[in-house]
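Notebook, bench 3.
Goal today: get a predicted structure for Alpha/beta hydrolase from Streptomyces pimonensis so we can plan the truncation constructs. The sequence was checked against the plasmid map this morning, with no discrepancies at the termini. Length recorded as 351 residues. Pasting the sequence as submitted so the record is complete.
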Amino acid sequence: MSSTELPSVPPANVLPRVAAVRVAEGERLGSVELPGVTLSVRSRPPARKGLPSALYVHGLGGSSLNWSALMPLLDDVVDSEAIDLPGFGDSPPPDDGDYSISAHARAVIRYLDATGRGPVHLFGNSLGGAVATRVAAVRPDLVRTLTLVSPALPELRVQRTAVPTGLLAVPGVAPLFTRITREWTAEQRVRGVMQLCYGDPARVSPEGFRDAVHEMERRLRLPYFWDAMARSARGIVSAYLLGGQQGLWRQAERVLAPTLLVYGGRDRLVGFRMAQRSARAFRDSRLVTIPDAGHVAMMEYPETVALAFRELLADTVDSAHQGDTGEPGAQSVPGPPADTGGGTTAENMRG
């Protein structure tokens, strides 16, 4: 093995035991074994039986915990589940070590096919937004609506603040970074992550900060933590460079599902200027911008994101009642601009 290669990771069945992941009040944590992957699944019991299913996909370095603030705000309209992508949260690494966007998308598709929960209201943030876009493009039968929070879609001019994250994709950088940061405490790491991901880190409560520190301590004990981060970052970069029908922007144009796009004005990882391009690319989309939000609006302003989704859901149902098919990916009739309050702006747009 050369000095620039990532170290090999022990099989999932011989990984050391670490502290249990946090489970918020009202949540349940389980796992599903699928061909090549085992996925940890976080869920909440819906307010009543028969509600449509929703599935949430987190971003790079995140986990299903990233959706714990949003899910309870929607439990009266959807039956929510959030997955940990392979190698993240409580999910072990994939058997083949493949962390590409396509591999993550296959894991989502395998889960939906195996559980029969589709078509779902599919949510994705950052890396999860790219994954969700690919799922919606290649398997429209599995997606009822699509909600993307700061999706990691290709940018020609990447923000300077996003460069260090992108550098993780370069062979040898992850091991180098682990050596450089060996003396950093979990608290220091969490503050750095929050500074990067939040529009205003002061919005994080002391309890939320403590929980984040405990989760960081847990992750750092996992021997595959940096491997999963580096290979997933490499997967994002590879997807950015991919053209033709497999390019993410081309796949965005193929999405049939009514789409909600959420962008933060203080996002340091995904350029705010990408909001309008996304709204033009997705053929049946509405755009919600939150000026004070960063990269994880569903954690910073969950009420705003929940309201925007409720309006998407209501308009989609209304269009079905007005004569549309009601099938997954059926186009909805744009309604009036969403009034989400809190300095948020929203608009309906068609590509």
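The first helix runs from residue 101 to 115. The chain has a mean pLDDT of 82.
Flagging this for group meeting.
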